[in-house]
Design a protein that fits this description.
single chain, alpha/beta, Immunoglobulin-like, Rossmann fold, 2 domains, 8-stranded mixed beta sheet, 5-stranded mixed beta sheet, 25% helix, binds S-adenosylmethionine
């Protein structure tokens, strides 16, 4: 497993009984986590600043004390906005830091200008991490609100080399193929289920293999990497590796679980990532 242990301002304090207690730059949040089927060693609700309650058809945040509507968290030289939102989101998937580091290193080692396509790009953590090391990033997400948040994160870090697109990812790729636009690297972090802006259905198990095949059409003649991340419960890293191998060839494909360390000495599993790397 690859463990995201590069945060100074973020940590998982404790876990148990379907919940995780996290410290986000001094603000303690308690959120549901379906992976946490073990018991808590203490009452996780004690001392929390806010907690998310899951309800039929949605959920909501409860506040035990007044906290800012949004605040900042540092990751290395970058800053990101933290904001409690619907669906228990905070605007950051902290475990993705392991992927940001890996991809930053690949871009730096390439010693050339790298064009990156970030698909299902959310609030732009990966976009900012990669643009900050000189890559030209195209950031695509179906949610206008998320793209606005990604723009704010870029602005916060004085980053200007990101092109922001609100679109359905498959439609965007089809258009880029017609326009003959190419990218040296592709990142994708698709949801288990989702809908594009015009209601396009996305179900990971049904759509991922075809989607990765489609993406082949926008890869440059000298690709650097393709990285696929998934939070879909039960999706084994080997499944991601097999998709990458079958579409791009079997060499230099790796896949692993990713996770976050907890203060209890446990590791919280946070999904799986696979990466195909071209050595050139
Ligand atoms: C799991 S989040 C990605 C997390 C992100 N990679 C990160 O680490 O910050 C999934 C994103 O996919 C977007 N999305 C869902 N369906 C989509 C579609 N068909 N086309 C484009 N974006 C979509 C959602 O708006 C959401 O922002």
């Amino acid at each position: 497993m690859r463990i995201a242990d590069s945060w100074k301002d973020y940590r998982v304090i404790a876990t148990g009984d379907g919940e995780k207690l996290e410290d986000w730059a001094g603000v303690k949040l308690l959120r549901p986590d379906p992976q946490v089927i073990w018991h808590a060693k203490k009452d996780l609700k004690r001392g929390v600043d806010a907690f998310y309650e899951r309800k039929e058809g949605g959920g909501l945040w409860h506040y035990n004390k007044q906290i800012p509507e949004q605040w900042l968290i540092d990751w290395k030289k970058l800053k990101f906005i933290v904001k409690p939102m619907g669906f228990k989101h905070t605007g950051i998937f902290p475990e993705q830091a392991v992927n940001w580091e890996l991809m930053q290193q690949l871009v730096k080692n390439s010693n050339r200008e790298i064009k990156i396509l970030n698909l299902f790009a959310y609030t732009g953590g990966a976009s900012a991490a990669l643009a900050s090391v000189g890559a030209c990033v195209t950031h695509v997400d179906a949610s206008k609100g998320m793209v606005e948040r990604a723009k704010e994160n870029a602005k916060l870090n004085n980053i200007s080399n990101i092109r922001f697109i609100v679109d359905d990812c498959a439609k965007f790729i089809e258009r880029e193929i017609r326009r003959k636009n190419k990218y040296d690297a592709i990142i994708m972090d698709p949801p288990s289920y989702g809908r594009g802006p015009s209601g396009e259905m996305w179900k990971l198990e049904d759509n991922l293999a075809d989607f990765v095949e489609l993406c082949k059409g926008v890869l440059s003649e000298k690709p650097l990497f393709v990285l696929i991340n998934s939070y879909t419960t039960g999706l084994q890293p080997t499944v991601i590796a097999n998709i990458l191998k079958s579409v791009f060839g079997p060499d230099n494909v790796e896949a692993d679980e990713i996770g976050l360390p907890t203060n209890e000495g446990l590791v919280l599993p946070c999904g799986a990532t696979g990466v195909k790397i071209w050595k050139n």
